[in-house]
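hey m, so remember when u said the tokens were messed up on ur end? i reran from scratch. heres the input so u can diff it against urs
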Amino acid sequence: MTSMLIRGGAAVVLAGLAVLAPTVAHADSGAQTGVSVQETRVFTGWAYENSPKEAKREAEKRARQNALISGFLNEQCVLLYANSTRLAPGYYAGDAAINCTR
């Protein structure tokens, strides 16, 4: 139980850092002239499946679908993390986050 809480806390911290990083990058680029500002967003996905691999894969797929709906291409996105948790025998939860820049 403690390891699940630690993993969840680490996932929240990583997502928070991923959200704050573009803000710092945009603040720095404003001081320079002639530099174009890029849009960066983080997308997450969740899934419940019968194996850890399926849960991770489906969660990443849903995160990429969210990015696609927002106009990002798969080539513009990088996987930040994919995590799976055992909920019961043969039942797993998966979550994933991707960072997209254009």
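this time it looks ok to me. The two ends are 39 Å apart (CA to CA). if urs says something different then somethings off w ur setup not the seq
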